[in-house]
């Protein structure tokens, strides 16, 4: 399942408090826009319900993909590809995982407008150009070679 997420701006993220979560104000487009205006895509994702949300998922030009913030898969499929590649750092381990699931034959289902999470923005001091480049190289190899199983996951030996 490939759900959607609404990445809130830093200003909004800093304002949201526990009471705003408990009262569910943080999911209210009008309330959020009073702090800082949401872009069109996030307004659509967060403000759509029922049939309209289902319709938007059907016509969405995006391909369902595995993204940590709001994805799910069957445990058996996750184990079959040996889980996450532990060499991966910030900036792509979920995408690489999803690409191996696809290579394994798992097809995603789009629920981008029906299942939304809010992402509070935060500093990313752990994000480096070197780690991003290393991740891209691993992802390229997975795509080019149609790799399904990683020797750097749950089990640490080669797949036989």
Task: Describe the protein in words.
By secondary structure, this protein is mainly alpha-helical. It has one domain. Helix content is 44%, strand content 10%. It is built from eight helices and two strands; from the N terminus they run βαααααααβα. It has helices at 10-15, 18-22, 29-35, 40-47, 50-59, 75-80, 93-104, 129-145, and strands at 2-7, 110-119. The protein has a two-stranded parallel ribbon with strand order 1-2. α7 runs parallel beside α8 (129-145). The relative contact order is 0.21. The model has no long low-confidence stretch (mean pLDDT 91).
Estimate what percentage of residues fall within beta strands: 5-15%
Rg value: 18 Å
Shape: globular
Distance between the termini: 29 Å
Can you list the strand order of the major beta sheet? 1-2
Secondary structure blueprint with pairings:
Elements: E1 2-7, H1 10-15, H2 18-22, H3 29-35, H4 40-47, H5 50-59, H6 75-80, H7 93-104, E2 110-119, H8 129-145
Parallel strand pairs: 1-2
Helix pairs in contact: 7-8
Summed up, what is this model?
It is built from eight helices and two strands, in the order βαααααααβα.
Features:
160 residues, mainly alpha, two-stranded parallel ribbon, 2 strands
């Amino acid at each position: 399942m490939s759900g959607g997420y609404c990445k809130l701006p830093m200003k909004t993220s800093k304002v949201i408090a526990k009471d705003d979560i408990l009262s569910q104000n943080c999911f209210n487009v009008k309330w959020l826009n009073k702090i800082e205006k949401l872009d069109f895509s996030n307004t659509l994702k967060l403000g759509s319900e029922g049939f309209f949300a289902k319709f938007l998922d059907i016509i969405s030009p995006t391909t369902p993909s595995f993204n940590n913030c709001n994805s799910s898969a069957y445990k058996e499929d996750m184990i079959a590809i040996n889980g996450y590649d532990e060499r991966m750092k910030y900036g792509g381990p979920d995408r690489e995982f999803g690409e191996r699931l696809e290579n394994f034959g798992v097809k995603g289902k789009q629920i981008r407008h029906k299942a939304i999470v809010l992402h509070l923005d935060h500093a990313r001091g752990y994000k480096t150009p070197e780690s991003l480049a290393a991740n891209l190289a691993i992802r390229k190899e997975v795509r080019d070679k149609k790799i399904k199983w990683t020797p750097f996951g749950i089990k640490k030996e080669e797949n036989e």
